[in-house]
Amino acid sequence: MGSELKYFTVLAIAVAALLQSTAAVEKHVVGDEFGWIVPPGGHYAYEVWASGHKFSVGDILEFNFTTGEQDVAKVTKEAFDSCNSTSPIELKTTGPANFTLDTIGEYYFIGTKDKHCELGQKLAINVTSTTSAPAPAPGPATPRGPVTYIVGEQLGWFVPGGEFSYSAWAYGKTFMVGDTLVFNFLNETQDVAIVTKAVFDNCTTNSTLAVYKYSPVHIILNTTGEHYFTSTYDRHCENGQKLAINVTGKSAGTPSPCPSPSSSITPAPSKAPSAH
């Protein structure tokens, strides 16, 4: 009886450990709902996607694409940098394609179809740890001060040719009351319009809440909830110059705004210092 009890105890511990390890493995869907495509905004889109994820040994990358239109190759860093697809480490041509991350270190993936890599269909990630049991629930988040976000970073505010770029830019960012959005663009070629969700969805830019024509535009977020931005220039919205964000809380040190019947987003003074 004693030996049987010991056997079942060891077996139970082993099964529990296996289940715990399995539960900790994560599947990362590359590009989320956009999948594995030639991104309109260039390679920046997948850089932003990767920055919002932590990759561990044992995790899986899933590349969703249309078979025959796309493929995915695992390559060396040199091949990644030069978009050389002649000798891939591994090539998968049927979507969805899965790759298991089996070692710590850097991984590189590209599309091998004509000019797809050069046009931005490339992903570099860094696997930094082995898979472990889920971490304990975090304590209360440390309050942070207001943050200034440069919309599109070095790309600025322009017509990217598709909706993916600004969705990817916003992905993984936490927007809070008191934060500032900065829109950089070339005057008389772009503008920034604050709009409702309906206008955002339909690109009916003849109905706006506010329009700002001179760069840079500083907009302070002063209430929680969803906020929508686009451009009133012809077909700019339809071609992807649109941004939707969700403000989820209040940053530390942000005074409560006075009630106002006006828009919940306030333009900052043009000479106001940026918060970092």
Description:
With 276 residues, the protein is of the alpha+beta class. It is 18% helix and 28% strand. It contains five helices and 17 strands. Helix 2 (44-51) packs parallel to helix 4 (164-170). The relative contact order is 0.14. Mean pLDDT is 80; it is low at 4-23, 256-266 and 268-276.
What overall form do the CA principal axes indicate?
globular
Across the major sheet, the strand order is: 2-8-7-4-5
Q: Tell me the span between the first and last alpha carbons.
A: 67 Å
Low-confidence blocks of residues: 4-23, 256-266, 268-276
Order of helices and strands: HEHEEEHEEEEEHEEEHEEEEE
**Helix percentage range:** 10-25%
Largest sheet: 5 strands, mixed
Category from helices, strands and their pairing: alpha+beta
Our estimate of the beta-strand percent is 25-35%
Number of helices: 5
The overall average pLDDT, rounded, is 80
CA-atom Rg in angstroms: 23 Å
Total strands? 17
Oligomer: single chain
